[in-house]
Design goal:
alpha+beta, 3-stranded antiparallel beta sheet, 3 helices, 9 strands
């Protein structure tokens, strides 16, 4: 028996109805986006099996393992800049959470299409994708150059100038290996100490 996205989405309606204080308080479209990610992971798994490659079965992820939550449409369970009456601060409103102040590092251009909240370590980030972003053409320089991207040289221009490949991984490999050894020696903290 195959379970597809449509079957799970239909079941989600019943789950939300049975648990209005838990699952029912979160955005339906956000939960559907998570189901789409799950369906995409299993579709890729079965495509690898069919092609005869190592399948890499998708792992179960409990609720503490999700680092990204996506709202497919601004205004459907979330709202960007939800309190414009506070011009000095920007807020995002997330259904089930409320208004959250955002520290913007640059102005948003265009119309906000999707909103994602992403956790990296102990920090949370709001990631926006926008439509109708105005194009900002560069000023005309009056010169034309061809660029060839390579491996031995990162860039070779039609004028004969070459930019060496910086090989960042090779330059930091020793430091990365040391950091991984240090991390392997550390013990996991199971809870916050009082």
């Amino acid at each position: 028996m195959t379970v597809r996205y449509g079957d799970q989405s239909a079941e989600l309606k019943h789950i939300r109805g049975d648990d209005p204080g838990g699952q029912g308080r979160w955005s339906f479209s956000c939960q559907q986006a998570t189901l789409r990610r799950l369906d995409k992971a299993f579709a890729a798994f079965f495509a690898r099996v069919k092609a005869g490659r190592t399948p890499g079965f998708p792992r179960f992820k409990g609720r503490g393992w999700f680092d990204t939550v996506t709202w497919p449409k601004d205004g459907d369970g979330c709202r960007w800049d939800s309190q414009p009456e506070h011009p000095a601060a920007t807020f995002v409103r997330l259904q089930g959470i409320g208004h959250v102040r955002v520290h913007q590092h640059r102005p948003v251009k265009g119309r906000v299409k999707t909103i994602s909240v992403k956790r990296e370590g102990r920090r949370w980030y709001v990631v926006l994708s926008c439509d109708d972003v105005p194009a900002e053409p560069l000023p005309a320089a009056g010169a034309v150059a061809g660029i060839d991207m390579g491996v031995a040289c990162l860039v070779t221009t039609s004028d004969g100038d070459q930019v060496a490949n910086p090989r960042h991984l090779a330059a930091t490999a020793d430091r990365l290996a040391g950091a991984q050894r240090d991390l392997a020696r550390k013990k996991a903290r199971l809870g916050a100490s009082a």
